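Chapter summary example: a protein plus CDM.
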Amino acid sequence: MHTFPAPAKLNLFLHVIGRRDDGYHLLQTVFRFIDYADQLTFTVRDDGLIKLTNPMPGLPDQDNLCVRAAKLLQERSGCPLGVDIHLEKRIPMGGGLGGGSSDAATTLIALNRLWKIGWDREHLMTLGLELGADVPIFVYGRNAFAEGIGEIFTPVDLPSCWYLVLTPPVHVSTVEVFSSRELTRDTIPIKMAAFSTGQGHNDLEPVVARMQPVVASWLAWLRQRRGATKVAMSGSGSCIFAEFPDEPSAREACMQMPSEMSGFVVQGLASHPLSDF
Ligand SMILES: C[C@](O)(CO)[C@H](O)COP(=O)(O)OP(=O)(O)OC[C@H]1O[C@@H](n2ccc(N)nc2=O)[C@H](O)[C@@H]1O
Ligand SMILES: Nc1ncnc2c1ncn2[C@@H]1O[C@H](COP(=O)(O)OP(=O)(O)OP(=O)(O)O)[C@@H](O)[C@H]1O
């Protein structure tokens, strides 16, 4: 039995700079891992079966991204082994924090080792991209400036800081946001260095804020917090965050949260906990 973390990510900004012929969007974004994670426990089986030991309500096992990742790896590597997977879910689902993608990436990294397949990270990242645009970053394992559809990385060193992440009680469909007529797809590409001077916004944010007014009003509240150096939505939402230089200022903002709001304080990570595994 082996337990591994699957951390969440924040998109510190997300620019949509174009669209490919297949409908996928060309992005520029910075991914930052945060100290908030699901836990996955793997027990290798020698009968080749892949089983989730604690099914998630409303999500058929065969659609679960960790089951899909295990099946894909088994199929492509020809490995005869199977696995029991226990998934302890903590990251809000469909919140733009990449939880499902992170579960898939941790599964690929762990089973590559436990099944003794021996592929390098590059190979696992290519496989991961078949499961979703957000999977490769979690396999890559370093905070990064990302381009392409979110799979071409340049590592970035980010300052230590803390986040107040708010979790509005609404689910936002990534497909719906990307296919909105209101979405602008022509932000001028920036150089990576521009980000460190504070440039960057999330082009998906105004679309989601219009679809879900609660996101707009919670964003407005976050923008009024003292000491916040940045406020934005992560990915396709609905989670939003404020960045603070230290823990006390993030906690102070959290204490001021009205009772109808929900969220948590979390530290930004320097890298994925399995980056050197
Ligand atoms: C918004 C982000 O979370 C930012 O990190 C990701 O780009 C989304 O990644 P993801 O959830 O892994 O996305 P996928 O499962 O690959 O794609 C879901 C849907 O989002 C749209 N999509 C996604 C990524 C991208 N670069 N362009 C897109 O247009 C497509 O309609 C796609 O069918
Ligand atoms: N292990 C999993 N954990 C969470 N969701 C999963 C998982 N496997 C499949 N899914 C499906 O994927 C959808 C998106 O889940 P996820 O939590 O990754 O959203 P997200 O963070 O908004 O992703 P993204 O920002 O990458 O679109 C869920 O609504 C669910 O139907």
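Key point: The longest strand covers residues 25-45.
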